[in-house]
Write a structure and sequence with these properties.
- The protein is of the alpha/beta class.
- It folds into three domains: about 120 residues, 4-hydroxy-3-methylbut-2-enyl diphosphate reductase, catalytic domain (Cobalt-precorrin-4 Transmethylase, domain 1, 3-Layer(aba) Sandwich); about 100 residues, Rossmann fold; about 80 residues, Cobalt-precorrin-4 Transmethylase, domain 1 (3-Layer(aba) Sandwich).
- The chain is about 35% helix and about 15% strand.
- It has twelve helices and 14 strands.
- The strands form four sheets. Strands 10-9-11-1-12 form a five-stranded parallel β-sheet, with helices on both faces. It has a four-stranded parallel β-sheet with strand order 3-2-4-5.
- β9, α10 and β10 form a beta-alpha-beta unit.
- The longest helix is centred in the N-terminal third of the chain and has 17 residues.
- The N terminus and C terminus are likely disordered.
- Keywords: 4Fe-4S, Iron, Iron-sulfur, Isoprene biosynthesis, Metal-binding, Oxidoreductase.
- It is an enzyme of class 1 (oxidoreductase).
- Belongs to the IspH family.
């Protein structure tokens, strides 16, 4: 039986919120106030799968269940799982020998896997299958003696994991500007791969600049930027030109959430902000605003978006129009280590992770 989300107390705001009347008086709005709500938004299949993996591990093995890094980059999700008995650690050496540890959706390097084995840890690998695909590409091209230009943000967990598959063959390219200066060993044996949560436009600009310098640069066999990242950026691109204000729900360490703010501004939103919770919204943002765009990153549960919509309604934005740019029906099987346990226990309640499959609150 699937457990229900835990309701957590939201952070307090150290000020008194201005009334809707005061905000309206400060900057009157002409025309009907409304919200343009992006779709798709929120949880992707990989995130859903990873969160369910931790929930099922807690249910079947009992707490504590250790998780290396944040299972997904969202404060609410992490705090909810902590309430249920998950313990988040930075590295496997913080996990007691023989204990159970879950690897996060962002993936890990072979060195992390070896470290867990050396400590006799039981592991559940909740790496998103789309990240695993990039790992396999890195291994394959390294074996073919290609130099890999990995487009991504150095220090991000996903980039660390992919880089760790073939460090002697890989260089990280952080930005289009770095593409102008990077040096390679053999310009005829080059391929680019990317972090899955980047800005589509910025990644393509980086590739363009690389190819200007290295015409024989090869593309990956398929797009590395995940479908959810691309779809959420496409939705906000459609909304942004019509929006006086865009609110992106997502955490500061969520790369795809941060990119949504950047994309909104690039494509014409007058203002765009990221919040973890509705009570982080500054009501002054509504001054003079007719149309509010709302979306959320791929690791954000829908309950947090609904909180923002309720707040917006209090300030006169009760009309909500959903802007649909794609339909998502991708499902991923749960990690194989967990599937075996669920099968033995006769638990058929959840075998898949994916959009539309998860109860919302």
């Amino acid at each position: 039986m699937t457990s229900s989300p835990v309701a957590l107390s939201m952070p307090t705001v150290p000020r008194r919120r201005r009334s809707p009347e005061d905000v309206a008086a400060a900057a009157p709005v002409e025309g009907q106030k409304k919200v343009l709500l992006a779709a798709p938004r929120g949880y992707c299949a990989g995130v859903d799968r990873a969160v369910i993996a931790v929930e099922k591990a807690l249910e079947h093995y009992g707490p504590p269940v250790y998780v290396r890094k944040q299972i997904v980059h969202n404060r609410h999700v992490v705090e909810t799982l902590e309430e249920r008995g998950a313990i988040f650690v930075e590295e496997t050496d913080e996990v007691p020998e023989g204990a159970l540890v879950v690897f996060s959706a962002h993936g890990v390097s072979p060195a992390v896997v070896r470290s867990a084995e050396d400590r006799g840890l039981r592991t559940i690998d909740a790496t998103c299958p789309l990240v695993t695909k990039v790992h396999r590409e890195a291994v394959r091209f390294a074996k073919g003696d290609y130099e890999i230009l990995l487009i991504g943000h150095e220090g991000h967990e996903e980039v660390e994991g992919t880089y760790g598959e073939a460090p002697e063959h890989t260089q990280i390219v952080n930005s289009p500007e770095e593409a102008d200066t990077i040096q390679v060993k053999d310009p005829d044996r080059l391929i680019w791969l990317s972090q899955t949560t980047l800005s589509v436009d910025e990644t393509m600009e980086t590739v363009r600049r690389l190819r200007e310098r290295f015409p024989n640069l090869q593309d990956p066999p398929s797009d590395d930027i995940c479908y959810a990242t691309s779809n959420r950026q496409a939705a906000i691109k459609k909304i942004a030109p019509q929006a006086d204000l865009v609110i992106v729900v997502g955490s500061a360490n969520s790369s795809n959430s941060v990119r949504l703010v950047e994309v909104a501004l690039e494509y014409g939103a007058r203002a765009a902000y990221r919040v973890d919770f509705a009570n982080e919204v500054d009501e002054s943002w509504f001054e003079g605003v007719t149309t509010v765009g709302v979306t959320s990153g791929a690791s954000v549960p829908e309950v947090l978006v609904q909180d923002v919509l309720r707040l917006a309604s209090e300030y006169g934005y009760g009309t909500v129009e959903e802007v649909v740019t794609a339909e998502e029906d991708i499902l991923f099987s749960l990690p194989k280590e967990l599937r075996a346990t669920l099968k033995e226990a006769g638990d058929a309640s959840r075998g898949l992770g994916g959009r539309g499959q998860r109860p919302q609150s």
